[in-house]
Amino acid sequence: MMAGQDAQAWRARAVGSAASDIDLVFDAADRPGTVTALLAACVCNPDGQAIEADEAWDWTLSQRLQALIAMRLAAQEPVIELQSACTRCSEAMELALDLRALAGQTATPRFHWRSDSGIELALRLPRGCDLQSWMLDGPSSPEALAASLIEAVHGVAPDEEQPALSTLLPMLDDAFEAHDPLTALRLHTTCPECAHDNTLVCDLEALLIDGFSRAQARMLDDVLQLASAFHWREADILALPRWRRAHYLRQLHHEGAWA
Ligand SMILES: [Zn+2]
After folding, report:
1. Among 63, 73, 92, 99, who pairs with 59 as Cys (CB 3.0-4.6 Å)?
2. Ligand 1 centroid – CA 195 distance (Å)
3. Over the stretch 194-231, which tens digit does the pLDDT of each residue have?
């Protein structure tokens, strides 16, 4: 079941809409930390207060991803262009992913699942802090990671009755994917050359982070252009509303060299 209320409970702004975004750190070695920093910078509670990092860590991966999608939509760039190659004939394929179709699809944090053999599990989605502790604690077995997401087996705490996890594991992966399809998003596309039906597994979070990093780079580029042309200070340029920065840049490009 999808919960639509989360999306209404907070508001997101675009990366690049505040001067402080110039200080955002995109750390490829710490993706969970990067996401938390982005959310703490760009997501507000309904009362307009920025959310705390602790709150962002506590959100499920599904909630975190939805907030990143909302940030991207706030930038009014709803479409991500993907390039891939057909797995059968290697023909280049292009795919447009429209984030508006994915917004608001927050998976509920807890769900029940029943295996074919009749084992009933109460499962929870991983949260940001789970990723952080998995990263800090070093490599763990897939069984141990899955076990940490099982809250009950046949209604009792899992320590008392441990099912054969290694045999359940592939099915558990499917169960998590079915409940939260966006976290490891599968896209289907037909090859224009050979008509083969390709399935692309898409790391949506990575694509979104990449887009935010490019938005920050554009912001720095704008500052550089305006500073070179008008000899304004960085802080003054960043203090300008975005529409005014865009206006001056347009002038600059229409008029040629002003400096
Ligand atoms: Zn093909």
Report:
1. 63
2. 6
3. 999 999 989 999 999 999 999 999 999 999 999 999 99
Which residue type sits at 106? T
DSSP secondary structure letters along 219-236? HHHHHHHHHHHH---HHH
b (16+ CB within 10 A) / e for 53-87: eebbbebbbbbbbbbbbbbbbbbeebebeeebebe
> How far is the centre of ligand 1, averaged over its atoms, from the C-alpha of 193 (Å)?
5
Question: 150 and 121 in contact (C-beta within 8 Å)?
Answer: yes
Query: 82 alpha carbon to ligand 1 midpoint, in Å?
Result: 16
Distance 197 CA to ligand 1 centre (A): 8
Specify whether the CB–CB gap between 87 and 198 falls below 8 A. Answer: yes
pLDDT in tens, 28-78: 999 999 999 999 999 998 888 999 999 999 999 999 999 999 999 999 999
Count other Cβ atoms within 10 Å, centred on residue 27.
Answer: 10
How much distance in Å is there from the Cα of 177 to the middle of ligand 1?
A: 27
